[in-house]
Amino acid sequence: MAPSKFSHLPLATSGPQDCALTGTALLQTPYMNKGTAFTNEERKEFGLSSLVPARVNTLDEQVKRAYEQFQARRTALGKNTFMTSLKDQNEVLYYRLIQDHLKEMFPIIYTPTEGEAIARYSRLFRRPEGCFLKITDPDDIEAALEQWGSPEDVDIIACSDGEQILGIGDQGVGAVLISIAKLVIYTLCAGIHPNRTLPVVLDVGTDNQELLDDELYLGVRQPRARGPEYDAFIDRFIKACRKRYPRAYIHFEDFGLRNARRILDKYNQTIPCFNDDVQGTGCVTLAALFAAIHVAGYSLKDLRVVMFGAGTAGIGISDQIRDAIAVESGKSREEAMKQIWCVDKPGLLLRSHGDILTSAQHDYARPDSEWPDKKHNSLLDVVRQIKPHVLIGTSTRPGAFTKEIVQEMAKHVGRPIIFPLSNPTRLHEAVPEDLVHWTNGKVLTATGSPFDPVDVNGKGRDIAECNNSVVFPGIGLGTVLSRAKLITPEMLVAAVKALAAQAPALKDPDAGLLPDVTNVREISVKIAAAVIKQAVQDDLAQETNIPTDDGELDAWVREQMWKAEYRQLKKVSKAEADREALGVLGSKGVMF
């Protein structure tokens, strides 16, 4: 690939790649290894001629071979294990294989199969990958993080304490795999350099008795730490990250209900951090909502929203809707919040529920004085009273959106917007086919899992999937490239607008409310550019010389996105090599 106008940038991906490794050391470095695709010239220059077969393969030929090997695995978990092994050997081939078969591969490398791999982590373990920080050794945190590079070597740190993994609960040390999986998606979907990421498990013990009783369990064998000890450990980790990697972006993943929002709120005013369960789910849902209100002709400032399920995801979605209403209408966040009614196990959240509510739920609890003589214990009662434009489900209560509830809603609004988002499919509050039938095709819907198109008067209507992977990678890319000091509500709304602008439904009302995940890299370019522009506007960007012209900015972003392509290797001496050329970046094989 020829150098571009921006090939001088530190994260540029065009032009040759410096390499100080030779022989087996090069073959054992996943982000530079090409296997049978090393050219004859590279084989001679880097001492590989006797270490690889004679035939020089193209990347396409390698992908074909790897796909045949993938298909030969009979189970989803076996395919997941094969992909993990391939990633350990050749990262370009790994990512290219996934890109070429994205729809088929995504459920293998992420949910649901990754959940099974996490649950069996200690029994499937082969080699360490990632950073293991243990609450029993808090004094080791600073030294442990230093082993991963110099202050400029890490762009994203993904961390999890493993309390609420992918709907399967507390998985202890196995959470390192969810941190790894999230970083894979950042690379796959937004071109974050795979050797500039750091997956971390914050091993604070586990309350999963099955793991504690397992003689092969690899984590800290004690009940999960809580209270001041836990908070001090998290705080020490965050401060150590900021000290060692002052420009890195921190991604929180799968923390428990009582901690996820609390930790995010504690740190998001001082560091660039993001919680996908809280913000990512909210952003992708809001993007689908933006497209839906465009089709329906509603105004955001007048919208009435009922949120059924007020856990981490439900409150996160509510927050994003609240912030969007405030940004777009000029209302205060408190005023915007009054347009959202949250329903959970006690029924409509009321202030009199007191201590049974989490701190995040308290914000959305309604004054009891609003409901003195009104029924509010059931979702149907609330829908009758509120007459919402929008009904969103994150309750994991299958079939909760009944025909009676849906038709009650449809009596009062022209195009009911209904998003049953609970995962997996068996936990959906309703299925799209029923929603379409019960509303005579008027419903606008998006779901939390993939569904086939639904027939509406002889024409197929696409059902959008609210897949976080179409939004959080682009947000991360924009934050990394701009070196933003913070991630603000305005930046997230900018990201949502960029995603919503690519919704097929804007051109065809029967098309999906969100673009398909197969187009995710192009989507991420648009989202990243929007985030960067907002960061610059708000004086939060620390990177200099960011282009102001849209076309130039697009090229600037693309040049710094890692691609699943082999680059020509340029031999350099160890004395002049940086850490990347020496093969010491990335997360493989470091132990504490």
Automatic annotation (TrEMBL):
Binding, (S)-malate: N423, N467
Gene3D superfamilies: Malic enzyme, N-terminal domain (3.40.50.10380), NAD(P)-binding Rossmann-like Domain (3.40.50.720)
Boundaries of every Malic enzyme N-terminal domain copy: 87-268
Annotated active site: Y110, K182
GO BP terms: malate metabolic process
Ranges where the Malic enzyme NAD-binding domain occurs: 278-536
Molecular function terms, GO-annotated: malate dehydrogenase (decarboxylating) (NAD+) activity; metal ion binding; NAD binding
Obligatory cofactor(s): Mg(2+); Mn(2+)
Cofactor binding summary note: Divalent metal cations. Prefers magnesium or manganese.
Family matches, as PANTHER family: MALIC ENZYME-RELATED, NAD-DEPENDENT MALIC ENZYME, MITOCHONDRIAL
Family indicated by similarity: Belongs to the malic enzymes family.
Name listed for the protein in its UniProt record: Malic enzyme
Gene name per UniProt: MAE1
